[in-house]
Amino acid sequence: MMDQWLIGGILLVALVLFVVDYWRYDIVAMMALLAAALLGLVPAGAVFSGFGNAAVITVAAVLVISHAMWRSGVVDALASLMKKVGDKAWVQLIALTGLTTFCSAFISNTGAMAIMIPVALQLSRSGSGNASLILMPMAFGSLLGGTITMIGTPPNIIISDIRREVTGESFGIFDFSPVGLTAAIVGLVFMWLLSRFLVPKKSGSEKSDSPYDVSAYLTELYVPENSQFVGETIFELENQVKSNFVIVALKRGKERWSAPARYRRMKADDVLIVEADAETIQQVLDMSGLELNADEELDERFLVSDDISVIEGIVGHDSRLIGRSASDLRLRHRFGVNVLAVARQGQTLPHNLSNIRFKPGDVLLLQGDAEILNDVFERFGCFPLAQRSIRIGSERKLWLPLGIFGLAIGLSAFGLVSVPVSFTLAAGAMVVSNVIPIRDLYTSIDWPIIVLLGATIPLGAALERSGAADSIAMTALAVSADAPAYVGVGLLLLVSMLLSNIVNNAAAAVLMAPIGISMAATLGVSMDPFLMAVAIGAALPFLTPIGHQSNILVMGPGGYGFGDYWKLGLPLSIVLALISVPLILWVWPL
To answer: Is 362 exposed, middle or buried (0-12, 13-18, 19+ CB in 10 A)?
Structure first.
């Protein structure tokens, strides 16, 4: 009994830390695992056994394949078709959510969203739609798509592997499809009909070329012959100004440099394009001898050149920018990148940018060398929102990954090769055939997810070994006493769904599966409907932005607040729960 209380206490503390979000979820999971090991709840030889689990290897392989499909332009080629759907808002909604759902059945939800968000923004700005009315249904569609196949989302992979450990046979790659596909269709139709009444229409996401009024903060300063800064470097001028002040361009006669190097020396008659508020500009004029030279309204034409770009990007859920500011990162000094603006929940933040600490979902407007910007986005875990060139390359590069992926699906679907082996072979084939360069092999894997799975799988086993899973199952059955068995299935699905909104959905699946198995054993019925209920529930966190990376990605571009998600997510969750339970019991009878 003491072991049950100890493992329960560890998991409860971990859940609280997940919600507080002070430490990243993989760190919390690892601390919980080590605490359980120190208390003897996890045998010494099994502490790190989760990292060798077939589910972890399968998730890593699927992430590599997803990145290869993204990089080769397969999803881009599909996304390019969206330009032909016209400017009717309801047509855009159906096309974008449908395509996102389809892609998410086979590749990473996050990867599909990273491709589709720029397409959605472009369509909504050029057409009659509003981005906020499209982006949330797209995010929810990506979650629905994950339920269609075993490889669509980590919870399905985990549930399949848990079934293999208990019965010796895992779920097949399309065993999830009867329930998942039906749920996806119902969810899409629900959103097509009702999302316009339930999704908040945000003014910050109205159609426009940019959510930022950059020109309001751009000013021309003239360098006269008698200025003390003639012959000095740009760095020396910027260093003299305590407030936020950035020189974003320099004009010298017919020449112009966007994002000029900080070591470039100023000359008499130079014109500086600076970004700062009125108070800072006055301070600069008072101390530098520079003069105002703004005879016309400035706009973004001063920010770009053949080599310099201005690109929007979203701060990802595990970005290295989170909790840090531009001054902490020294982006200008290290990379030659200027932070021109920051928007949070659709609203531009005050223009003193140097000390703003970034949060997941923030939308940044960055200026710099185009190639360097791509590296910065990748290095810091951000997703670019600017329309990118299609990466389809040669025809061979487009069809080769599709062929490898299709072969992997076929081998596993017909039972010729197990899913972990099949998809690991496919990931290897992608690397060997140079569909994905070997240098990108490990960067394409979402390592926090891998660490989370490796740490929580032994915790799930400890929950079952200690008897805590049986106790929780007995309590759940006592609550539904004298009710039919399907009530227990529905209760398990609802708890899994709620839990996935506050912790990572993979962790929710790991923790709830042993409880489902215990409930089935107590009732003396098949465990399959209970495992399917956990899989469906864990894969559909619609109530909060922190429930899934897809929800976070649309938070900034859509201008959503934390409390906006449940307005569409709650009725959608209720509808899906009501249709999923009888469907699960019909496909997987007790």
So the answer is: buried
- Tell me whether residue 185 is in a domain: no
User: Using CA atoms, how far apart are residues 474 and 478, in angstroms rounded to an integer?
Assistant: 6
Closest to 136 in 3D by CA, of 200, 83, 206: 200
Containing structural domain, residue 279: 224-289
Which of the residue ranges 143-157, 262-276, 320-334, 555-569 would you say has the lowest mean pLDDT? 320-334
The whole-angstrom separation of Cα 382 and Cα 266 is 34
Q: Within 10 Å of residue 482's Cβ, how many Cβ atoms?
A: 5
Following DSSP, what letter does each residue of 199-238 receive, concatenated? S---GGGSSSS-S--GGGGEEEEE--TT-TTTT-BHHHHH
Task: Clarify whether residues 281 and 315 are in a common domain.
Answer: no
235 found inside a domain: yes
Gap between the Cα atoms of 460 and 52, Å rounded: 15
Q: How far is CA 431 from the centre of its chain?
A: 24
What's the pTM? 0.77
Residues 6+ apart with CB under 8 A from 417: 411, 425
The predicted-structure confidence for 269-324, as pLDDT tens digits, reads as follows: 888 888 776 677 777 887 878 887 755 555 555 566 556 677 778 887 777 888 88
Q: What is the pLDDT of residues 1-49, one digit of tens each?
A: 688 888 888 888 888 887 776 787 788 889 989 998 998 888 888 888 8
Question: Cα separation of 173 and 176, whole Å?
Answer: 7
Q: Which residues contact 355 (CB under 8 A, 6 or more apart)?
A: 325, 327
- Determine contact, residues 203/558, Cβ cutoff 8 Å: no
- Picking from 354, 384, 414, the residue at the C-terminal end of a domain is 384
Rounded-to-integer distance, Cα 541 and Cα 547, Å? 5
